[in-house]
Amino acid sequence: MSMSLRLLWAVLRRDLRLAARRRVEALLPLGFFVVAAGLFPFGVGPEPQTLRQIGPGIVWVCALLSAMLSVTQMFNGDWQDGSLEQMLMSPRGLLSVVLGKVLAHWLSAGLSLVVASPLLGLLFGMSAQSIAMLCLSLLLGTPILSLLGAVGSALTLGLRSGAALVFLLVLPLTIPALIFGIGAVGAVEAGLPQQAQAHLSLLGALLIMTCLSAPLATVAALRISLD
Amino acid sequence: MSQAALPSSAPNSAPRWRWNTYAAPSRFYAMAGLAIPWIWALALILGLAGLWVGFAMAPTDFQQGEAYRIIFIHVPAAWMSMLIYLVLAFWAAWGWMLNARMASMYARALAPTGALFTLLALWTGALWGKPTWGAWWVWDARLSSEFILLLLYLGYIALTEAIDEPRRAAHAGALLALVGAVNIPIIYFSVRWWNTLHQGATISMTAAPKMATTMLWAMLLLTLSFWVYSFAVVWTRARAIVLEQESDSEWVRQLKAGGPKS
Q1: What digits encode the pLDDT tens for the residues B59-80?
Q2: Least Cα separation, residue B106 to chain A (angstroms)
Q3: pTM here?
Q4: Domain ranges of chain B
């Protein structure tokens, strides 16, 4: 067990160091997130009432798209230089490798979205409580995106149209997370903190379930892709 | 399985029947070739009978007028769309776990038909919704779930088509279909909680049906017809996939040399 944890830790540190060495590349998902969300006021008009209403949804959907954009790179680099096949052959489970990579992806891509979301909330004129809830729901939701994205990334490993495929494969599966995340923010805006808590609990349950199942599916997908 | 080592006369010989007899692509190919014309004929007869009962015999609905008649297409199509996804996931998983090629080919053959029924259910739903609800589309729980089901089908088709190697395509597709099947209840209930407007289920096993007997007959006949049609078209497609993937095998070469004989 401690061996698996050490492997996880090693993969995590390695991936984070790689991300830190290519800082601009690591920040690209965040740039996409801000640009995509920033386009909407130009698309729907500057009316503050409308923007406040659609703000949470836009921030969430842009976070989904941004996570899918970065998740395609999760295994690609290691696959291209052959290190992924070495990891596959290691006697210490592939599961630790997958968990380490997912965690690294979340820390380098997902967490930055959570940190940037209050800023976007301000741009859309949301209230302080709504922004706090938006942040909290994204904090619970973005790991789900990294976990599900890992499955799609492993399935499409090395395919010509892999990046576009990940969007089509994974986004439909993220709809429950989107619904519960938005539900929590909507409940706060409607002044129903109890209901917001219910939505957050469901989002947390979804996170736990995804945590337990998605890494196993990712391992199976990697074995299929590298067979 | 032992399909590779079949005797060259396998398509025409009559082997002793076992549960996995038709797991051999060559035997499936021969059996389906014999059965398909009959299945098509049965689908046509059932379909015509169902349409006759539904559009000529069933009474006009006192609330919805004639527009309700689209449900004779809509409801069976929606049932089939969900059933086929489960059947697809089952065969894909079977092919993955037991490494049975025929099951994987069968799963791939099912996908376009399932997607077609999903599209048909959405389309007829829109045609019914316009006169009844006054809108082509509403983001109601069932409509949204059906729409997401269409996306799942499209994802499966796109993934299996994007992978050139048949084995990897089949197994990757199986994993995706299983992930989708596990997620369907979660998606359905989350969407239902999100919004609901669709009329409740009209036919249930526990309560007495809330519709006239002729209407029920029309719906059952068309459901059977769609079911049989699915067999016909999926087997036809599965035969084509068998020929494509087995084109290097001895029996397909003999088939080609022997001319167009099924």
Answers
A1: 777 666 777 788 888 989 999 9
A2: 19
A3: 0.86
A4: 27-58, 69-203
pLDDT at residue B140 is higher than 80: no
Contact criterion met (CB < 8 Å) for A169 and B155: yes
Number of domains in chain A: 1
Question: A64-73, B133-142, B156-165 — which is least confidently predicted?
Answer: B133-142
Q: Within an 8 Å CB–CB cutoff, is residue B111 touching chain A?
A: no
- Token couple for B99: 């490494």
| CB pair distance less than 8 Å for B171 and A224 | yes
Mean pLDDT calculated for residue range B126-133: 83
Q: Which residues of chain A have pLDDT under 70?
A: 1, 91-92
Q: Nearest residue on chain B to A183, judged by CA atoms?
A: B194
Q: Is the dihedral of CA B65, B70, B72, B75 positive or negative?
A: negative
| CB-based contact B167 A227, cutoff 8 Å | yes
Test A169 with B193 for CB contact under 8 angstroms.
no
| Nearest partner of A152 among B96, B84, B156, judged by Cα | B156
Question: Which chain A residues are closer than 8 Å to B155 by Cβ?
Answer: 165, 168-169, 172
ipTM score for this prediction: 0.89
| Residue A131, domain extent | 2-225
- Which is more confident, A152 or B190? A152
Give the Cβ contact number of residue A197 at 10 Å: 13
